[in-house]
Amino acid sequence: MMKKRFLFNAAVLTGTSLVARTIGIAFRVYMSNMIGAQGIGLYQLICAVYFFATTFATSGITLIVTRLVTDSIAGGEPGKAKYVTRQCLFISLILSVAAAGLLFIFSDAIGTHFLNDARTVLSLRVLAPGLPFMAVSACFRGYFFARRTAIKTASEQLLEQVIEIAVFACVVGVMAPMGLSYACCAVAIGTTAAEILSCGYSYVLYRLDIKRLQGKRTRVAHFFRKALWIGIPVTLSSCLRSGLSTAENMLIPAGLKKNGASYEKSLSDYGLITGMAMPVILFPSVFLMSFSMLMIPEMSEAAAATRKNSIHYMTQRILRFALLFSIPVSVIFFFFADSLGALLYNDTQVGAYICMLAPLAPLLYLDSVVDGMLKGLNEQMRYLTYNIIDSVSRVVFIFILLPIWGIRGLIAVMFFSAVLNCLLSLMRLIKVTHIQFRLFDWVIKPFVACFLPCLALDSLCDTGLIPANGVWTVVLILLAVVFYLLIMTVTGAIKKEEIHWVRTLIKK
């Protein structure tokens, strides 16, 4: 029953996230047409500060709720789950209102002196009121994860996406002609409206679900100590990483400018990489992100019951699945980058960046899955340490390399960061779970199995026999996937038990 519920939740989250990511990519394309690469670069600067504020307001709260509610329900004490959720809501409201107030009051100073661009001030002020609603939604999300009711989290996520796009589409036509500041503000209005309305929706779902828990609200002994133990490492890690990320985002345009580019060109390149190419690279990760979040309560429950065999099995299976998926994604991005850039953004430069960044995919995808498992295994302090090392390294190398190498320096830093963070997290997971990492079966085989058909299809395109258009790009990618699966199955790289596992997942 537990396995069936896990698979169902994973399928629901994956399906909804896939729809949301698809809508998100379409939204990015629409944004790029409305506000341009420079506008997207400017909004990425705004988001850097906004994400720091959201990190302060919400970081750690979802994990605290998920872990403590999971433990309460597993221990047969649903009344404690009610108490945990209520207390976390109170804490998150205090922190988020404080963060919103500070962001609103100091938006002028942050935009003018910190980001060195006064055009960011208006958007920061518009985003500030959405912080308390985001924090409350984060609590509800943690509760729904603990309850294994993924469909509620998924529907809230989808609703938020739709509202953001709808509001932006309604106001951008009026605001964009007024200048880049107002064009970015149109995005901010959509984001804030989405946070408010989706929070209301989550609250209704929460009230309906909480009534199903039997018993009165029961006090949890040493609640704050437990919450701090779980949340502080994650919060500190996230705040530090977000703060360093904000500093990093400030340094990037400045570093590119020192390399000889104008501020406008630096902002455009920044927008092309972070706001257009990276969303494409990260798009397929939707299939793994859901597992990452769902693994937290599953791992937590198995660890609490000292079920070492279950932990070993889940870790082995998820890691192998992550690599069998992410490696062919990386290869496909590498070979079809130009076509994807032209198809999505009608911009060959975006395609060039997709090609450069394609090898990042396995590292980023695997890291997200590993981090989810480490959190479930009570490895928050390690998570904190690794994130500090990674974030500090990124800022230092950006400061040093960008004035010398320009955009190539930024890409080099992204690769260094991904390799470092993934290796540290993976080595810790292997040590904790005592699994064997099978390089040949998990990495080399899937790489060869996808590289060969992609090379053949790409060579066929070079002959001119296949027209270079969007329809044929999709067809070729699908053919590459089919050939990859055939090669993996015929050679025995994908085992019968794994095919049976997938069939079971689909049936359930």
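(the above was protein one; protein two follows)
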Amino acid sequence: MNINGITPKALTQHIGAVGVRTGIHRFVNIGKQLNLYYFWEKRWFFIAMAVGVVLLNLETPGGLSREGLIVLTMSVVATILFVTEPVPLPTVALLIIAGQVLLLGLESTQVAKSLMTDSVLFIMGSLMLAVAVVKQKLDKRIAWLIVRITGTKTSRICFGISAVSGVLASFVGEHTVAAMMLPVGITLITLTSDDPAKVRNLAAVLLFSISYGCSVAGIGTPSGGARNAIMIGYWKEFFYDPANPETYRYLIDYVTWMAYAYPMFLLQLPLVTLILLVTFRPEYRDLSRAVVKLRAEVEVQGPLKPSDWIAILIFALILAGWITISADIGMGTVAVLGAIGFLVAGLVQWEDVNSGVNWGVVLLYGAAISLGVQMKNTGAAVWVAQNFLFFLEPLGMEEGIGLWGAVSLLTTAVTNTMSNGAAVAVLGPIVLKLATVAGESPIILGFITAVSSAFAYLTVVGTPACTIVYASGYLKTTDFLKVGWKMCIMSIIVMLAAAYLYWPIIGA
């Protein structure tokens, strides 16, 4: 029987379809009411919390205290949040602070005091200096200076960019230098050709010269990156005893760090250029056309202004302070004094500093270092170190260069998934206790960890410098993999050679 020309079967299908659509609409409305999208966006936060609850309810493993289990749980949860970033990273810092009070039972005053060490003060001061340096806008002058020294050949310009980026990054910090040098690279690219397709490989070589130049140089001095300051703080916290003169060698000052690390940076510079030129064969071997246009633009700017010379003088005084008096008053104090100098001279306004400094990063590193100290105090670091050695023993890598290589590979893997500072903050206590358990030099293993944290060549988010050059639009994510593995192998070989041949000579 037909109803108005509609068969019973068709009617049934229609009713069913209406029912399905109604059900879908109801589900969507319920989803909107419950904000399911929010839960999906924050899923890794809830996963991390669930992992934490599970770990805290496990039976405490043999050789590990209950407090040690709590600290390890906090570290695992923090690492998941570092990698996945479902919440702003400063939120992770606040969780670490709250966890120390609520889970470990520490007094809030005690936790608060642990957040502001000289290492954290140094990081804060360096970020303030970075804002002041960027404010001077010397990018085109730097580009012109490079080509005046190197000439117009592409290979020499690439080396010059890496060298200048590296030297600056070793003192200022790679994110600052990358931001300052990016216009230099883009200027040379756009002055060569307006068509990105025609300068695809040239752009890759020039931009990677910036990011990788910054990365290999960030190891050179304590001011090259937060990771370095964090490791210096750990050495002091773990091994220094004012009553024992033999422990004074763990007070690594500015000059001592440079003696260990700066030669590695200098050795890697030409290798960076070689790897880039072999991987990406640039379309133009000479950039004379771009250099002519660049010269014209610099001439329009005129000579350096008095404010530029004052900025250069202040920065020179900061470097001198780090080298001469930082051992007495702390590197953090010198950095803050430098920031004060820029503010008093009127070269930067407080509004610029306040908006330009990522204060959340300062809080993050403070909390991470504080958690690292608790890993030492509760014995968690020793427990992890012992189990790591147990894992390496069947592989014959429980000591010597085998252990160094294992630590380097572990750090390289971790630093490509989170910030290098966070990598050192998490791994530092474990590695230093590992050195004690294995009878290795804490200085050597500490340097290996700090230096290896700079090998974040494989991903866009590995370092701020990589993220900054990727933001130019000239690079693909696959470009980082294409050249990054070669950079990792080169850097690890150079570092292990230094650890085996050079560091013992200077007292490691």
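Reviewer note on protein two: DSSP finds 25 helices and no strands in the chain.
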